[in-house]
Amino acid sequence: MQFRGLKNSILLVIISVFFINCEGVPIEYLENDEILSFEIKDLETGEALTEALGDGENQIQLIANISEKADPKYRTITFETSGGQFISNGGKSIDKKVDVSGQSSVILEVPLSKDRIYLSAKIKNEAYNIINEKFIDLLEFENIIKLEILGSSGNELTQEVVADGSSIITLRAIVEVDMDEFQNVTFKKSKGEFLGVDSNQSIKPIDQDGIAEIQFEVPIESGRVYFSAEIGNNDNQYIVEQFVDLQKAFPNELLIESNSTSITKSNPIDLTVYTLRDNGKASDGIVVNFKAYQTFEDDTLSIGRFTNRANATTSNGVVSGVKFYIDTNDYNPDLDIVIEAYSEGSGQAEVSDSVKIDIIE
């Protein structure tokens, strides 16, 4: 009977101690998950997150709960992140006390990145290291920077761009994220000239609207021109590319010149053709054709021969190096020779010019 009474007394003491310690169970008697829970949630919807858009502006919520079973002295949580920054202090670590329900939360602004970031919530106490860790995968933000090709006044291009050596187009870079590290845009090109810049690249500041612009003078070489706009550095660099196809700028007029107004069998004449436009120059590579003839009554007869005619294309608006000979003996010495140069012109109309040459026997 004495043992039975003793046994009942011991049981009563154990039950009493249990109920007393439910108000603050020593932390060493609880598992980590029982002590500290940790969640990552969407700031607007409250849904649990395992990934988020890494655009440098997106915000997520970190929520930690300390179990009510834990001793009341454990009421401060340290939140830490490997990337981004906490809104309230701009750092990667912050201490927050829990509320009466044992909960604490912070808002994290994710970095501009496509990497995984690691997050943790830790009970701040020197004696114990109670920590709960998670990670979140960042999705790449594809529209960090855009590049537009516009008209000389920043207007939308409504017609084709011709390679006339004088037309101006505007490159506009639009940075879609607001980050202190992005202060400038580096513009690059494959050919042509940036206005006022003697280099293949130029650095322009980003204004308060996230825009940087530069003007480009087209070359006289038709074909595709490539552009790029870059922001950031080697560790965090973003590049966008664009191109424009330059069409041939055909002449509005031709002007043919010869080095002499007369010709003999033994001395050919040199011919030069200038391609003229109302604006700028004709593009390189415009084909200029030649023909020589004499007219008698209503008949037109081709005579003589040309050399280097196969290579008669414009270079910087000029065709040169073509020679004309009359050593073919197919001419009438009593008639002038007409040498004509002709080419496709602007608007697909043919343009031409001619010069008369005397024959000296």
The proportion of residues forming helix, as a percent range, comes to under 10%
Enter the CATH topology name of the largest domain.
Immunoglobulin-like
Measured by DSSP, the beta-strand proportion falls in over 45%
Structural class: mainly beta
Report on the biggest sheet: 5 strands, mixed
Number of helices: 2
Determine the N-to-C terminus distance. Answer: 157 Å
Q: Give the neighbour order of strands across the main sheet.
A: 2-9-8-4-6
Mean pLDDT: 88
The CATH architecture classification of the largest domain is Sandwich
Total of domains: 3
Task: Spell out the key features of this protein.
361 residues, mainly beta, Immunoglobulin-like, 3 domains, 5-stranded mixed β-sheet, 27 strands, 48% strand, rod-shaped, disordered N terminus
Summarize the structure.
It is built from two helices and 27 strands.
What can you see in these coordinates?
It is a single chain. The protein is mainly β. It folds into three domains: 21-140, Sandwich (Immunoglobulin-like); 145-248, Immunoglobulin-like, CATH 2.60.40.10; 253-359, Macroglobulin (MG2) domain (Immunoglobulin-like, Sandwich), CATH 2.60.40. 7% of the residues lie in helices and 48% in strands. The protein is built from two helices and 27 strands. It has helices spanning 2-21, 32-35; strands spanning 36-42, 51-54, 59-66, 76-81, 85-86, 93-97, 103-109, 116-123, 131-140, 145-150, 162-163, 168-175, 184-189, 193-194, 201-205, 211-217, 223-233, 236-248, 253-258, 262-263, 269-276, 289-296, 299-302, 305-307, 318-325, 337-344, 350-359. The strands form six sheets. It has a five-stranded mixed β-sheet with strand order 2-9-8-4-6, with no helix packed on it. Strand 26 and strand 27 (350-359) form a beta hairpin. The longest helix has 20 residues, at 2-21. The model is unreliable at 1-23 (pLDDT under 50).
